[in-house]
Amino acid sequence: MFRAEIIGCGIGGACAALAMAKVGARVRVYETAARTAEVGGWVTLGPAASTALDQIGVGEKVRAAGFPVISVSTVDTLTGRTGSFARTEPGHRWSSTHIWRKDLLALLRESLEEADIPCDYGTRADPGERTSELLVGADGARSATRRMLGDTREPTYTGQTIRYGHCPVAVPGLPAHVLHFWSHPDGVAGYVGDERDGSFWFSRRNVASGATADPDLFLDALRATPVVQVLERSEVSAPIALYELEPEGNWHNADTVLIGDAAHAVSPAAGRGATSAIEDAVVLAKTLRSANSIAAALESYTEVRRPIAQATYRPGAAPKVSATDLRL
Fold first, then answer.
1. Architecture in CATH of 3-45+97-153+245-326
2. Region 8-37: what's the mean pLDDT?
3. Closest Cα to residue 98, out of 33, 49, 54?
């Protein structure tokens, strides 16, 4: 088949390595961080992500390590208006899955080892030096691979800052496996919980660029919700400014391509970052298998994936990815 090098062994890079190996590529991965995958935070993967993870043989393990998110419940605290909808998508077998980011990364990296895919951890690879027919930039929102392709843009501040929290105990009285949102004039608070894994909550607020928000303000929105019952027992992050990179610019040339945040870093507010990276990885492998050249495959990948990424940035536009799109 062909040899490929992947810069970055995060969620997208690891999935790309597994997917490309499945279609016959000889893959090597380079990652600046250590093997341990000791990263903070969590992700909620969409139904399409589960479909894609099944294609590379890790879906069942990921769902076992996390817990299902079956629906969303919304409350507008200003008007009192409520709503709800299922966290399922037509054509996909599974609902959304909530999982610690470190657990997801650990499972993916274990799968690389089981598949005998080499990954050089603690290595800062130069994307300008390569020994393969294909280079995949999965090196995040501040991607050196993207700059090598001539795109010097940097992620921009979204106007929002967030604090996350976790408590080992679920909130009494709130249904498990339901993602709850409470919107208010200055932002939104959210919660999802599980009896085994406890409470996961966040508070996101509008904060002007360069301004510093009182950290306690983020908790005020939660004190008016049932989450107040676990706030004092929660481990709470510092405020984190949210950035994004719109899916424009060059995604590829004849033998180099960007996936995940390197191509389109979306704010966690969209709930699509990890899912999009996983979809990118599988679609890239699929196009590499079916096209008559690497250059043609990268063109096809971009034509398929850019509109999906762009839809994430349009309010009310739900990206639609079918199970067929993700079938290897």
1. 3-Layer(bba) Sandwich (3.50)
2. 95
3. 49
